[in-house]
Amino acid sequence: MLAKIVPIVPPRPDLLHIPRLDTVLMVEDVIQRYRELPSRAELIRRLPRKVMYPTLNLILLYLQYSKKIAVTDEGRILWVFQNNRKLRRTTTRRKKTRLGGRLLPE
Predict the structure, then answer these.
(1) Taking the model in full, what pTM does it have?
(2) CA dist 26 to 14, 50, 56, Å?
(3) Tens of pLDDT, residues 57-70
(4) Do 16 and 58 touch, CB atoms closer than 8 A?
(5) Domain spans of the chain, in order of start
(6) How far is residue 67's CA from residue 45's CA, in Å, rounded to a whole number?
(7) Domain spanning 16-92: which CATH class is it, in words?
């Protein structure tokens, strides 16, 4: 079954609190550090600064859309993004390979 794509931009931005970059990074850092949080309330308790609930919801929607977190049916928040240095290194430094006797362009 295909997942329903939720639009990131709210229909009426004047009604919502739009998060700043430092707030998004703070929430992302806490979720990444704990790997799994049982609820949004637990996430709010573990944040170093207070975040308004509508702002947190928008941040969680963004992180879900960018495939960094997954939210289960029970409301658990899981960090699923793979931040692997070795994988990044191998994808950035490709070796020249031969295809039919010719070198492939990089």
Answers:
(1) 0.66
(2) 23, 11, 11
(3) 999 999 999 999 99
(4) yes
(5) 16-92
(6) 23
(7) mainly alpha
